[in-house]
Design goal:
Two copies of one chain form a homodimer.
Chain A lengths: L6 H8 L3 H9 L6 H14 L5 H8 L4 E6 L4 H14 L5 E6 L8 H9 L6 E5 L12 E4 L10 E4 L1 H14 L5 E5 L5 H16 L9 E3 L4 H13 L6 E4 L2 H13 L9 E6 L2 H5 L5 E4 L2 H16 L8 E4 L2 E3 L9
Parallel strand pairs in A: 1-2, 1-3, 3-4, 4-5, 5-11, 6-7, 6-8, 8-9, 9-10
Antiparallel strand pairs in A: 10-12
Helix pairs in contact in A: 1-2, 1-3, 5-12, 7-8, 9-10
The structure holds a DNA duplex (16 and 16 nucleotides).
Chain lengths: 331, 331
DNA sequence: TTGAAAGCGCTAACAG
DNA sequence: CTGTTAGCGCTTTCAA
């Protein structure tokens, strides 16, 4: 907890000006070799490291890529791993930022604004609520907001995944199938909702509004919706949830209500976060390649930053149904 | 990609000085209510957000906590989730930083130096190689470097875990048990090594240097060590690896060599990262509570930043053996 | 109640 | 080859 040495300290100790230190440290032309040596020696002695912040204020470029997330939950964590891997042999540092303080709508707008222009050379936004941002750096969105996307985006086939999940429930013999929706502002959530409805309709089953709850990916909202749905006398025998964390919460609620999964209730989630397969019983779900999502976004961003106009600006990756222990025919 | 508005833009548009804008935005005393209103209106219109970087250069405090990792691999990702959860209802933003560019020793020294003093109010370093850092903010280390730690630390019982893992192999009937070591600069790696040796010694088994490889947690090094070890005529019938990623690599190498796991070779890892249970065959491992590690560190850091001297500065959490599909009696 | 001015640590002209 | 100077966007005295 000693005070960090600044460029001024180094300059003083080396008996040169701060400008010379800057040049020496950054390997700029026009410094005598012996001066460089002396400066670097002092740098080593003092353990000096240039402040990323101060440098970035002047030099418009920092070699840092930012990943903006609402929260460090399992989904973002997986995406982050993918981005990290894709960037591991690039020359960029990686900075992940979550504005804990502003769960409010528009967090990414704020975060991006605060970091861009100085700290980061490019950004990846994960499940942004707002798509129309003003940054002075290239931005790629993963699983973006609904509405016109002027941003390059990477997402997965939510409609197809939801269709498949719901169909599998139907194939098992379920006819009363509930749905807990996700964040209504995300394009992917809407697609999952649509996939669910389509599967029912295709099978000639009615869509009962009483079996559609709004969870918004928030634990408390999911709990409330699940409680209401499962307490009904005509409760569903299966529920499809728009993401795994919601599905896991439903399983919890079911068990509190004395319902056994999957005997009394089948549950399918979406994402296949690590927590899904670790749960007891292991959660059936729709796997989306989260790490690939991140890696793909990183690749696009890298191109963008190199001034390359990407040929594909909207990537959609396939999903796959993974049936585990929370699905069974109705009792 | 419009240019981000700065405080100067706001000032101009509102017809006041930048100083006034600053005061209005930050709710300082001494600004006429109507001026405040006008300024905030312009702020909203322009979509202005103060630059985190510029602010942090002047105001010694930012409300941001930094987590410094070498890489966004599974272990750090889990830790990050824990930190995020612990901080979710604090007033702090969370910033995770990985210096991709400097895999070199001392990355955390550099990262910390570059971020602290300006950008972050406190830091958590994950598996730092260097423990003697000069930051001007409080720092907590997770799974730290060996050597005298003047830093508060959080880690798990690596010795006990390794002991248990190796013993379980012995109990299965194995007598030739290999070990692929981790990063020799980490205290936890050394403890795992020691636990392995102790288990063998306790059982009256010799420690064969030919069965101890150095992996350093790096895939290529692990591969080489595993290859060498498994090609021997007197190859081990079981291997304990200092972390899961190493163990997974060993399984891969074994299969390339035509050895079937666990029939021809038992493997146990350490950590229980999500990838371990998803692997085929599912990896037997020593579970360490990675998220709790992160949460615990966050709690300590919060105290430190509040000026509270923590009563316990070195937390050690228990581990638990999780036997899955990569362990069996020797053929 | 407001604004002018200094300065955080650093880089980039430009002089010397 | 080196130092002086001028900011980057912001906050904070201190006068007006």
């Amino acid at each position: 907890m000693k005070r960090r040495p600044t460029i001024t300290d180094v300059a003083a100790a080396a008996g040169v000006s701060v400008a010379t230190v800057s040049k020496a440290v950054n390997g700029r032309y026009g410094v005598a070799p012996e001066t460089v040596d002396r400066v670097l020696q002092v740098v080593a002695d003092l353990g000096y490291e240039s402040s990323l912040i101060a440098s970035s204020m002047r030099s418009r470029t920092t070699g840092v890529i930012g990943v903006l997330v609402a929260d460090f939950e399992p989904f973002s964590a997986e995406v982050l791993k993918g981005v990290g891997q894709a960037l591991s042999d690039s020359r960029y540092d990686l900075l992940a930022y979550s504005g804990t303080r502003s769960t409010a709508e528009g967090w990414e707008r704020r975060s991006l604004s605060r970091l861009s222009g100085t700290l980061i050379d490019g950004a990846i936004m994960v499940t942004p609520t707002v798509v129309n941002v003003n940054a002075d750096v290239p931005v790629v969105a993963i699983d973006p907001h609904t509405g016109p996307a002027d941003l390059p985006t990477v997402e997965c086939d939510s409609f197809g995944g939801a269709l498949q999940a719901t169909r599998s429930l139907i194939d098992l013999g379920h006819t009363r199938i509930g749905f807990i929706a996700g964040r209504p502002d995300l394009r992917s959530s809407i697609a999952r909702d649509a996939g669910y409805r389509r599967a029912l309709t295709d099978a000639g089953l009615p869509v009962d509004p009483a079996l559609v709850g709004s969870g918004s990916y928030r634990q408390d909202a999911v709990r409330m919706a699940a409680l209401e749905m499962l307490r009904r006398s005509d409760r569903p025998t299966a529920v499809f949830a728009a993401n795994d964390l919601s599905a896991l919460e439903i399983v919890r609620v079911a068990s509190e209500l004395g319902l056994e999964v999957p005997r009394d209730l089948s549950v399918i989630g979406f994402d296949d976060v690590p927590e899904a397969s670790k749960a007891i019983p292991a959660l059936s779900t729709v796997r989306q390649p989260m790490q690939v999502l991140g890696a793909e976004a990183a690749r696009m961003l890298l191109d963008l930053m190199d001034g390359i106009t990407p040929t594909v600006t909207h990537v959609k990756l396939p999903t796959r149904l993974v049936l585990r222990e929370t699905t069974a025919p109705p009792a």
